[in-house]
Amino acid sequence: MTLHVLSFPHTSTTEEFVGCAYTSRVRRFCQMMTGGDRRVILYGSELNDAPCDEHVVAVSEERRQHWFGSHDENDLSRGGFDWNPQSPWWSEMNARIVGEMAGRLDQHDIICFSQGRSQQLVADAFPSVIGAEIMVGYEGIMTDPRPSPIAAAYESHTHRHFVAGLQGWRFPREYDAVIPNQFDPDEFPAGDGGDYLLFMGRLVGGKAPQVAGMVADALDMKLVVAGAGATAWGDGFVESSEVRVEARDLEYVGTVGVEERARLMGGAAVTLMPTIYQEPFGGVAVESMMCGTPVVGKDFGAFVETISEGVSGFTFSTLQEAVDATEKAMDLDRCLCREYALGGYSLDAVAPMYERWFGNLDSLWADGWKTLSRPLVTAQ
């Protein structure tokens, strides 16, 4: 069996690129799946260092820059990119993938989609091949009927239930699964902590970074803010088109690369994630925990799954609870926090989940749900 993995037209699957969580996940997925019994073919943009058995260039660097310019790839607020499958970058890339995949695809292979309906053209071109949406943290899953199913692996149980509600499903799809986001521990070494609070993420209203400023002021602590989308910043503030963050002692460091990200996380006392929408996963939380830095996040969305209360952080509802939780989190054992994250979200921990799922999907070529690995033992 070969896994045909689709990437994105606007980003590069390289270690330096950290601005898009989905792109980073494609790279880590290839890292997990390459080297076993299955082959991995990656279809993506020209610049790539993701491990794979074959890299198919579906978007040249010249073409990518034609569409989006030479702006910083990690600043996804620029470049005009969108997820509309009719946009030229998607339609051209998908058509190229269809042509390249046609000569490589075997009936029992699996097409691994990374962005749902944006890649529908590829799914429609090969209706008899099993499809797998390998990282569903979005809402636009593929639901069109076809001879072979497209199954989905959701980033959290919370998001699986949320999408089921959007679709009006009362009964779950049998071959869907929940497989969390996964991370390379080498990118997130243990840190010693420090005396500042950290907010890391896009400066958008849904992430509610302004709440981090309120918590920092209440505790009279410095707040470090990292992330894309800022339009102005200065002494004690940073703002975007959607939100303004203020704190008496605030430092805005912009978008950061791999090493700086780990340094900031490992050096923080607590990472604050006051997201006010239904967070599908919130990868920054687990990244921070891997560095040993506890997380304080909202008491809904994926944080109720990823944050282990009293071990890797706390959740909150009100501002007072956020302040109290942050104060308590500073006393947590950083080694236990890191061990928790490694045990549930490292590449080694998550890879077997994908292996199990792909094994279940492969059974569709046998008796499907009723397939048994050995005969039933009947009473004599």
Brief synopsis:
With 380 residues, this protein is α/β, with parallel strands linked by helices. Helices cover 33% and strands 18% of the residues. β4 (110-113), α4 and β5 (130-136) form a beta-alpha-beta unit.
Could you explain how this protein is built, in words?
This protein has 380 residues and is of the alpha/beta class. The chain folds into 2 domains: 2-182 and 347-370, Rossmann fold (3-Layer(aba) Sandwich); 185-342, Glycogen Phosphorylase B (Rossmann fold). The protein is built from 12 helices and 16 strands. It has helices at 21-33, 61-68, 88-102, 120-125, 157-167, 209-218, 258-267, 283-290, 303-306, 319-329, 334-345, 347-362, and strands at residues 2-6, 39-45, 54-59, 110-113, 130-136, 150-154, 177-178, 196-200, 222-226, 232-234, 237-239, 244-246, 250-252, 270-273, 295-298, 313-316. The strands form 3 sheets. A 7-stranded parallel beta sheet has the order 3-2-1-4-5-6-7. Helix 6 (209-218) links the parallel strand 8 and strand 9 (222-226). Helix 1 packs across helix 12, helix 6 packs across helix 10 and helix 8 crosses helix 11. The two termini are 39 Å apart. The model has no long low-confidence stretch (mean pLDDT 92).
